[in-house]
Inverse folding.
Protein backbone atom coordinates (compact mmCIF):
# COMPACT_ATOMS: atom_id res chain seq x y z
CA UNK A 1 0.00 0.00 0.00
CA UNK A 2 1.04 3.61 -0.57
CA UNK A 3 2.42 5.00 2.69
CA UNK A 4 3.59 8.53 1.93
CA UNK A 5 2.09 11.45 3.83
CA UNK A 6 -0.96 13.14 2.25
CA UNK A 7 -0.41 16.04 -0.12
CA UNK A 8 -2.10 19.43 -0.11
CA UNK A 9 -2.01 22.69 -2.01
CA UNK A 10 -1.42 23.14 -5.72
CA UNK A 11 0.90 20.84 -7.64
CA UNK A 12 2.15 21.03 -11.20
CA UNK A 13 2.34 18.43 -13.92
CA UNK A 14 6.02 17.60 -14.42
CA UNK A 15 7.10 17.77 -18.08
CA UNK A 16 10.43 16.98 -19.71
CA UNK A 17 10.86 20.62 -20.73
CA UNK A 18 11.24 21.52 -17.05
CA UNK A 19 13.39 18.65 -15.72
CA UNK A 20 16.63 20.59 -15.53
CA UNK A 21 15.02 23.75 -14.18
CA UNK A 22 13.28 21.89 -11.37
CA UNK A 23 16.43 19.98 -10.40
CA UNK A 24 18.54 23.13 -10.46
CA UNK A 25 16.16 25.63 -8.85
CA UNK A 26 14.11 23.37 -6.54
CA UNK A 27 10.99 25.57 -6.88
CA UNK A 28 8.64 25.78 -3.95
CA UNK A 29 5.99 23.41 -5.31
CA UNK A 30 4.33 21.08 -2.78
CA UNK A 31 4.10 18.11 -5.17
CA UNK A 32 4.36 17.08 -8.81
CA UNK A 33 2.28 14.78 -10.98
CA UNK A 34 4.02 12.56 -13.51
CA UNK A 35 2.41 11.01 -16.57
CA UNK A 36 3.53 7.58 -15.53
CA UNK A 37 2.96 5.91 -18.92
CA UNK A 38 5.96 7.87 -20.22
CA UNK A 39 8.23 6.08 -17.74
CA UNK A 40 6.97 2.49 -17.79
CA UNK A 41 9.18 -0.03 -19.53
CA UNK A 42 11.98 2.48 -20.02
CA UNK A 43 15.41 2.41 -18.41
CA UNK A 44 18.36 4.73 -18.48
CA UNK A 45 18.02 8.47 -18.20
CA UNK A 46 14.24 8.70 -17.96
CA UNK A 47 14.18 6.34 -14.98
CA UNK A 48 16.97 8.30 -13.33
CA UNK A 49 14.89 11.46 -13.72
CA UNK A 50 11.94 9.77 -12.01
CA UNK A 51 14.17 8.53 -9.21
CA UNK A 52 15.62 12.02 -8.71
CA UNK A 53 12.22 13.69 -8.56
CA UNK A 54 10.81 11.05 -6.20
CA UNK A 55 13.59 11.98 -3.78
CA UNK A 56 13.03 15.73 -4.15
CA UNK A 57 9.22 15.97 -4.08
CA UNK A 58 6.08 13.99 -3.30
CA UNK A 59 4.78 12.54 -6.57
CA UNK A 60 1.43 11.41 -7.90
CA UNK A 61 1.08 9.01 -10.84
CA UNK A 62 -1.43 9.80 -13.58
CA UNK A 63 -2.02 7.26 -16.34
CA UNK A 64 -3.99 6.67 -19.50
CA UNK A 65 -3.14 3.01 -20.04
CA UNK A 66 -5.61 0.99 -17.98
CA UNK A 67 -8.49 1.38 -20.48
CA UNK A 68 -10.84 0.55 -17.64
CA UNK A 69 -13.97 0.75 -19.77
CA UNK A 70 -12.77 -1.58 -22.51
CA UNK A 71 -14.13 -5.06 -23.20
CA UNK A 72 -10.59 -6.36 -23.68
CA UNK A 73 -8.97 -8.11 -20.71
CA UNK A 74 -6.96 -5.81 -18.45
CA UNK A 75 -3.43 -5.43 -19.77
CA UNK A 76 -1.38 -7.48 -17.31
CA UNK A 77 1.93 -6.32 -18.76
CA UNK A 78 0.92 -2.70 -18.19
CA UNK A 79 -0.31 -3.43 -14.66
CA UNK A 80 2.92 -5.30 -13.86
CA UNK A 81 4.99 -2.30 -14.89
CA UNK A 82 2.73 0.11 -13.03
CA UNK A 83 2.80 -2.00 -9.87
CA UNK A 84 6.58 -2.12 -10.00
CA UNK A 85 6.74 1.68 -10.38
CA UNK A 86 4.36 2.15 -7.45
CA UNK A 87 6.46 -0.10 -5.24
CA UNK A 88 9.69 1.60 -6.31
CA UNK A 89 8.71 5.28 -6.18
CA UNK A 90 5.85 5.26 -3.65
CA UNK A 91 3.55 7.88 -5.23
CA UNK A 92 1.03 9.51 -2.93
CA UNK A 93 -1.86 8.94 -5.36
CA UNK A 94 -2.41 6.84 -8.48
CA UNK A 95 -5.06 7.85 -11.03
CA UNK A 96 -6.48 6.91 -14.40
CA UNK A 97 -9.60 7.75 -16.41
CA UNK A 98 -13.20 6.62 -16.59
CA UNK A 99 -13.04 5.74 -20.26
CA UNK A 100 -11.92 3.19 -22.83
CA UNK A 101 -8.98 3.63 -25.18
CA UNK A 102 -9.05 0.56 -27.38
CA UNK A 103 -10.81 -2.59 -28.55
CA UNK A 104 -9.46 -5.98 -29.61
CA UNK A 105 -5.94 -4.79 -28.77
CA UNK A 106 -6.16 -1.80 -31.13
CA UNK A 107 -5.53 1.47 -29.32
CA UNK A 108 -6.77 4.95 -30.16
CA UNK A 109 -5.17 8.20 -29.11
CA UNK A 110 -8.21 9.45 -27.24
CA UNK A 111 -10.06 8.94 -23.98
CA UNK A 112 -13.46 7.71 -25.14
CA UNK A 113 -16.48 8.06 -22.86
CA UNK A 114 -18.60 5.20 -21.59
CA UNK A 115 -22.28 4.64 -22.29
CA UNK A 116 -23.99 5.67 -19.07
CA UNK A 117 -25.92 2.49 -18.29
CA UNK A 118 -26.30 0.10 -15.35
CA UNK A 119 -24.51 -2.64 -17.26
CA UNK A 120 -21.58 -0.38 -18.17
CA UNK A 121 -21.28 0.86 -14.59
CA UNK A 122 -20.97 -2.67 -13.21
CA UNK A 123 -18.58 -3.66 -16.01
CA UNK A 124 -16.13 -0.83 -15.39
CA UNK A 125 -16.48 -1.07 -11.59
CA UNK A 126 -15.54 -4.75 -11.69
CA UNK A 127 -12.45 -3.91 -13.73
CA UNK A 128 -11.48 -1.11 -11.36
CA UNK A 129 -11.72 -3.51 -8.42
CA UNK A 130 -9.52 -6.02 -10.27
CA UNK A 131 -6.94 -3.32 -10.97
CA UNK A 132 -6.99 -2.06 -7.39
CA UNK A 133 -6.59 -5.56 -5.99
CA UNK A 134 -3.67 -6.21 -8.31
CA UNK A 135 -1.93 -2.90 -7.65
CA UNK A 136 -2.52 -3.05 -3.91
CA UNK A 137 -4.03 0.41 -3.63
CA UNK A 138 -7.21 2.34 -4.31
CA UNK A 139 -7.00 4.45 -7.45
CA UNK A 140 -8.50 7.80 -8.36
CA UNK A 141 -10.90 7.78 -11.27
CA UNK A 142 -10.96 10.91 -13.45
CA UNK A 143 -13.96 12.17 -15.37
CA UNK A 144 -13.05 12.80 -19.02
CA UNK A 145 -14.05 15.55 -21.44
CA UNK A 146 -16.25 14.24 -24.24
CA UNK A 147 -17.46 15.13 -27.71
CA UNK A 148 -20.05 12.39 -28.25
CA UNK A 149 -22.85 10.65 -26.37
CA UNK A 150 -24.57 7.28 -26.62
CA UNK A 151 -28.28 6.95 -27.35
CA UNK A 152 -28.49 3.96 -25.00
CA UNK A 153 -27.41 5.98 -21.94
CA UNK A 154 -30.07 5.95 -19.24
CA UNK A 155 -28.41 8.21 -16.68
CA UNK A 156 -26.39 11.42 -16.76
CA UNK A 157 -22.60 11.49 -16.82
CA UNK A 158 -22.50 12.86 -13.27
CA UNK A 159 -24.81 10.10 -12.00
CA UNK A 160 -22.66 7.51 -13.77
CA UNK A 161 -19.38 8.83 -12.35
CA UNK A 162 -20.75 8.90 -8.80
CA UNK A 163 -22.31 5.44 -9.15
CA UNK A 164 -19.12 3.83 -10.47
CA UNK A 165 -17.04 5.28 -7.62
CA UNK A 166 -19.39 3.71 -5.07
CA UNK A 167 -19.59 0.35 -6.88
CA UNK A 168 -15.82 0.13 -7.28
CA UNK A 169 -14.98 1.66 -3.89
CA UNK A 170 -12.47 3.94 -5.57
CA UNK A 171 -11.60 7.61 -5.17
CA UNK A 172 -12.42 10.45 -7.54
CA UNK A 173 -10.13 12.86 -9.35
CA UNK A 174 -12.52 15.64 -10.30
CA UNK A 175 -11.28 17.44 -13.41
CA UNK A 176 -12.94 20.86 -13.32
CA UNK A 177 -11.92 21.74 -16.86
CA UNK A 178 -13.35 18.48 -18.20
CA UNK A 179 -16.68 19.15 -16.50
CA UNK A 180 -16.87 22.59 -18.08
CA UNK A 181 -15.85 21.34 -21.54
CA UNK A 182 -18.38 18.50 -21.51
CA UNK A 183 -21.10 20.75 -20.08
CA UNK A 184 -20.59 23.21 -22.94
CA UNK A 185 -20.42 20.51 -25.60
CA UNK A 186 -23.50 18.63 -24.39
CA UNK A 187 -25.45 21.55 -22.98
CA UNK A 188 -25.80 20.46 -19.38
CA UNK A 189 -25.41 22.44 -16.15
CA UNK A 190 -21.87 22.17 -14.76
CA UNK A 191 -23.01 23.18 -11.26
CA UNK A 192 -25.66 20.49 -11.25
CA UNK A 193 -22.89 18.05 -12.13
CA UNK A 194 -20.95 19.21 -9.06
CA UNK A 195 -24.02 18.74 -6.88
CA UNK A 196 -24.11 15.03 -7.74
CA UNK A 197 -20.49 14.28 -6.93
CA UNK A 198 -19.76 12.13 -3.83
CA UNK A 199 -17.89 14.52 -1.56
CA UNK A 200 -16.17 11.83 0.47
CA UNK A 201 -14.68 10.25 -2.67
CA UNK A 202 -13.01 13.39 -4.06
CA UNK A 203 -9.26 13.31 -3.45
CA UNK A 204 -7.97 15.75 -6.07
CA UNK A 205 -8.93 18.47 -8.57
CA UNK A 206 -7.42 19.07 -12.01
CA UNK A 207 -7.32 22.42 -13.80
CA UNK A 208 -6.30 22.96 -17.43
CA UNK A 209 -6.94 25.07 -20.52
CA UNK A 210 -9.28 24.32 -23.42
CA UNK A 211 -9.47 25.56 -27.01
CA UNK A 212 -12.64 27.34 -28.16
CA UNK A 213 -13.84 25.93 -31.50
CA UNK A 214 -16.98 28.13 -31.53
CA UNK A 215 -19.56 25.33 -31.57
CA UNK A 216 -17.60 23.13 -29.15
CA UNK A 217 -14.68 23.24 -26.75
CA UNK A 218 -11.59 21.09 -27.23
CA UNK A 219 -9.69 19.87 -24.17
CA UNK A 220 -6.14 20.54 -25.33
CA UNK A 221 -4.24 21.27 -22.10
CA UNK A 222 -2.35 23.75 -24.25
CA UNK A 223 -3.09 27.16 -22.80
CA UNK A 224 -3.94 29.06 -19.64
CA UNK A 225 -7.00 28.19 -17.60
CA UNK A 226 -10.06 30.09 -18.83
CA UNK A 227 -12.20 32.33 -16.56
CA UNK A 228 -15.29 30.03 -16.57
CA UNK A 229 -13.15 27.15 -15.32
CA UNK A 230 -11.76 29.32 -12.54
CA UNK A 231 -15.34 30.20 -11.54
CA UNK A 232 -16.36 26.54 -11.53
CA UNK A 233 -13.29 25.78 -9.42
CA UNK A 234 -14.45 28.37 -6.89
CA UNK A 235 -17.86 26.69 -6.80
CA UNK A 236 -16.22 23.30 -6.26
CA UNK A 237 -14.14 24.61 -3.34
CA UNK A 238 -17.24 26.14 -1.74
CA UNK A 239 -19.09 22.85 -2.08
CA UNK A 240 -16.35 20.31 -1.26
CA UNK A 241 -13.65 22.26 0.54
CA UNK A 242 -9.97 22.28 -0.36
CA UNK A 243 -8.47 19.32 -2.16
CA UNK A 244 -5.00 18.87 -3.67
CA UNK A 245 -5.20 20.68 -7.01
CA UNK A 246 -3.11 20.16 -10.12
CA UNK A 247 -2.20 22.53 -12.95
CA UNK A 248 -2.04 20.52 -16.20
CA UNK A 249 -0.29 21.86 -19.31
CA UNK A 250 0.67 19.23 -21.89
CA UNK A 251 0.89 21.03 -25.24
CA UNK A 252 2.65 24.27 -26.18
CA UNK A 253 4.40 23.92 -22.82
CA UNK A 254 5.52 27.37 -21.60
CA UNK A 255 8.26 28.45 -19.24
CA UNK A 256 7.93 27.01 -15.75
CA UNK A 257 7.20 30.47 -14.38
CA UNK A 258 3.91 30.51 -16.31
CA UNK A 259 2.81 27.32 -14.58
CA UNK A 260 3.84 28.81 -11.26
CA UNK A 261 1.62 31.80 -11.98
CA UNK A 262 -1.34 29.52 -12.67
CA UNK A 263 -0.58 27.60 -9.48
CA UNK A 264 -0.49 30.88 -7.59
CA UNK A 265 -3.97 31.77 -8.86
CA UNK A 266 -5.28 28.40 -7.72
CA UNK A 267 -3.63 28.78 -4.30
CA UNK A 268 -5.24 32.20 -3.88
CA UNK A 269 -8.68 30.77 -4.68
CA UNK A 270 -8.15 27.88 -2.26
CA UNK A 271 -7.16 30.32 0.49
CA UNK A 272 -9.99 32.77 -0.20
CA UNK A 273 -12.78 30.23 -0.48
CA UNK A 274 -11.57 28.39 2.61
CA UNK A 275 -11.43 31.71 4.51
CA UNK A 276 -15.01 32.57 3.52
CA UNK A 277 -16.20 29.05 4.41
CA UNK A 278 -14.68 29.39 7.86
Amino acid sequence: MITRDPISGVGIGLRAEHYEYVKRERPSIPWFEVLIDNYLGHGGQIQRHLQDFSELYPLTFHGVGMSLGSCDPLNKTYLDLLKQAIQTYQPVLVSDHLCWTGFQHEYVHDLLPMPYTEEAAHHVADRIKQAQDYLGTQILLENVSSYMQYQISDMSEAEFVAYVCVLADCHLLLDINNIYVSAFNHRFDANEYLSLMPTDRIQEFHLAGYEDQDDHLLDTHGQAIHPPVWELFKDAIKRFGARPTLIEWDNNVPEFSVLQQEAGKAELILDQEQHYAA
Remarks:
- DSSP finds nine helices and twelve strands in the chain.
